[in-house]
Amino acid sequence: MSTADPRAFEEKLLTIDVIDGLRREQERLDRALGDAGRLQELRAEIQAYYAAAGLSVSEALIDQAIAERQAQRLAFKAASLGPFGHLVASAYVLRKRIVAALLLVATTGLAGWLADQQFARWQQQRELQAYRADLLAQLEDLQQDAALLSTLPRTLPTLQSAAIPALPDWVAALQGDYAQTMLALEDARQCLVISLPTDLALGWSGELALRRCHAGIAPTLSAIGRAQQLGNEHQALTQAATRYTQWQQRLASDSRLQDWHSITVANERLQTAILPGSSRLAFVDAMNDATLGLDELSRSLTGHADALACLEGAVTRATDVNDLRSLRALLEAGRGYRQAPAVAGIETWAAHAGDTCTFFGQDIALQILNERGEDTGVWRYYGEDRSARSNYLIVDAVGSDGAAVDVPFDSIEDNMAYKQSRFGVLVSAALFESMRLDKADDGLLRSTLLGRKPANQLTWQLGDGAEARFIAEW
Fold this sequence. Notes:
Blueprint: H1 6-33, H2 35-52, H3 59-74, H4 83-93, H5 95-150, H6 167-184, H7 186-191, H8 207-215, H9 217-253, H10 261-273, H11 280-317, H12 321-336, H13 346-361, E1 364-368, E2 377-381, E3 389-398, E4 407-410, E5 417-420, E6 422-427, H14 429-440, E7 449-453, E8 461-462, E9 466-471
Antiparallel strand pairs: 1-3, 1-7, 2-3, 3-6, 4-5, 6-9, 7-8
Helix pairs in contact: 2-3, 5-8, 5-9, 6-9, 9-11, 10-11, 11-12, 11-13, 12-13
């Protein structure tokens, strides 16, 4: 084996390879250049063949035949194709159309896929929005519970009063019921910390807890209502206990109250209501009734006493039998309040008695309204009979000093009590007409006095054609 340099050996092999390539190329060129000689030999052989056969063939015909043969030999001949080959060839020929069709199909498919993806995202977004809206609505409902819960104290305060023996038991019962109610609301308080995340997704992990809290709204509201009721009852009891202390202080500070039977009855009812084992609600009701009665009596004590004193004096001065009967009836009604079990209406009586007694002692004249531009008289039709007209003259009640005086009267139109200085007096048609004619010439009346009510009397003394029947509005 040679020990020559490997690189020199490799270079030698490469050179031999190049020489062999050049040699083969030379042989191919020689064969191509030798075609003309072979064609001459072929023409000679063909001529010899026909000559031996005794046939005369021109050289031009032989050259033509050789040329056609050469053309056939050198012409391209397509290889025989099978079905797959035809398919591939057709595809190659129609490649532009096929590519265009494939691009159209691909574009259409891509557009459809994108549209489907977009629709899916839009639908998912709608579902998410509806999902969020539903959860937010439930949270808003829970926030209403939160607003109500925030108004409830954790416990009810303790009340103490040595004057009310049953008060500790009442307060303990209220506090126990309230504690049980607040215990039932602890779950609702836990629900108040729930909130939606900013990146809310379908199937949120807190959904179950939120829906469970929302389902508990009805019982929560019921418990809140119960707690509010207990709180109101505690407040009412607190107010009643305070009023009871004030009740005792007011009775001790005003000895006049001891003379009223209604105060005695109310105090006895309260003393029973504060005993151990009694009803808390019964005590509150009794205290409210007692306070209302005491307030009304306190407001009326002075007015009642003044009205009684005034009436007692009026009875001694009355000379008319009817007036005396009216004054005595009013006086006995006022005295009866002292022994009545309740004083409801005493303020109304005191006001009416005071007005009546004041009116009894006044000397009042009724002057017909005598001013230019003012109606001196008016008329009314009552019912559908237009032939029966009621006529009224408008008068001013004037005291002995010439000043207007408010007088009490009942209107015949609505049977309501009024107290005013100007009103209408029912008169006959003849008197009404005479006043109309009197005022027609110069707009003023010559005589304006319609009647009077002397001092120490209740009865009006009116002129001919006038009745003590009045109206307040016209």
